[in-house]
Fold this sequence. Notes:
This protein has no helices and four strands. By secondary structure, the protein is an all-beta fold. A four-stranded antiparallel β-sheet has the order 2-1-3-4, with no helix packed on it. Strand 3 and strand 4 form a beta hairpin. The chain is globular. About 0% of the residues are buried.
Amino acid sequence: RLDAAQANKLDLSILDATGRTVKSMGPWSVMGIAQTSWDISSLARGSYSLHISGNDRQVQIPFVKQ
């Protein structure tokens, strides 16, 4: 879930613990409150980061798949 004050096109990918991209989630266009979900069933259990980039900003959100 994301709350974007302005329209944004974000690129999302999942990185493994070494920083390697293991899954590209593709572009996501957001405006206002946006919510979506992605299928990560193909990922092995372990630690990952969701990498979000857009408008000259980058954010990584760590998560654990169990």
